[in-house]
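Worked example

This section walks through a single chain of length 475. The input is the sequence exactly as stored; nothing has been trimmed or padded.
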Amino acid sequence: MNDSAKKLNLVELIGLVIGSIIGGGIFNLMHDMSAQAGAGAVVIGWVITAVGMLSLGLTFQNLTNKRPDLQAGIYSFADAGFGRYMGFNSAWGYWLSVWLGNISYATLLMSALTYFVPVFDNGHNILSFVVASLILWGGHFLVLRGIHSASFVNTIITITKLIPIFLFIVIMILSFKLHVFTTDFWLMHGKPFNLGDVLGQVKSTMLVTVWVFSGIEGAVIFSGHAKKRKDIGRATVLGIIIMALIYMLVTLLSFGVMNQAQLSHLNQPAMAYLLQHLIGKWGAIIVNLGLIVSVLGAWLSWTMFASEVPYEAAKFGSFPKLFAKENKNGAPINSLIFTNLLVELFMLSFLVASSAYNLFYSISSAAVLIPFAFSAFYQVKYSFLDKGANDRKRNIALGIVASVYSLWLLYAAGINYILLTTILFAAGIPVYVYLQKVDNREKRTFTKIERIIAVFLVIFAIIAIYELISGKISF
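Given that input, the structure is written out below as tokens.
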């Protein structure tokens, strides 16, 4: 097979974006969004999220078009704009974020299987660990066959897992009642309208939407494997638009079938029990099967991401060289082995800690915000310096919107999550020192500013560890 045949086309790139975004969150979205918000606040929350995520998607599109030499997207934007150490941190944080997220997928998958086979005990026993390990290494060997083979399978899985979601949407449309949707639209409980209360509700929905949109950068990560460079931005933007519409329909239509109180008290996954309420037990069976397929697809997508980022970073000298090794199929073999060995090791924690899922999921979600923010900041910097471009003003404005949104996400994540991410980045300091001293043979490891940043990371990491041990941070 020639190199062109191994490249990813637009459909496969869109499949990567949608496949990585749709994990398990959509199946409980109507419950999570309604926990503290009425239909009106949910509408506003989705509008803000759609604008913010689209600004990030357009940022990725613009930067991949303007800087075709930056093949690894997420990491390379930070490297080009803010130096080698920031580029390393971006790649390091994204890598850790993805493989830690894969651990949560393992537990979520076992929880879904428990609906059909109770012996799995929601992913907290030896049997669950063994089955999850078999699935982990099955995906491992699939990716070793090459990115094209894995992405083709991912596209098929993505199409398959959309079927129960579209079925749900159709049934919701047929069951939708406008008077249910509009009753207590702003969740004032009979009190006069209060803008402050509504804004508080909107903020609570934003925290949920951040997590369900993880994966929008899928096409950018594989920019080096795309048949056409312009397809990268198209896939990202189209993927975001498609998912925004699906999320809005799934959430808002549910408010026309059950009121806020009923939705917020549904068991997990809420979509299954909502469909069971309308069409019987078969509804729950269909959704749980969809959840299993969805998590399998997201796990495969994120396994590909987790191996690709350090591989691309290593090729450009921003990650240890050993991660750059390929097998005969062009798959990043060392990167994949290191990544999945870490996933395997950390999956053992589920045998002794029932709350480990929350911890890994929280850290994973917070860490990915750093690469997003650096991409947005670089959009502003590059566009400001690109004085000869006809679209300069548009791109500066786009970068500002994406930057404000990224900062908002960091704020919305909360101080606890930010503290926990400093542990991740502090752990990367020895790796960066090795990279600079051994691989790159640099006489000076850090610039003055980078040294200050590293010191503060260590200080805040120590504080975070103390807070965890003392129980002041818990999940």
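What to look for: The chain has a mean pLDDT of 87.
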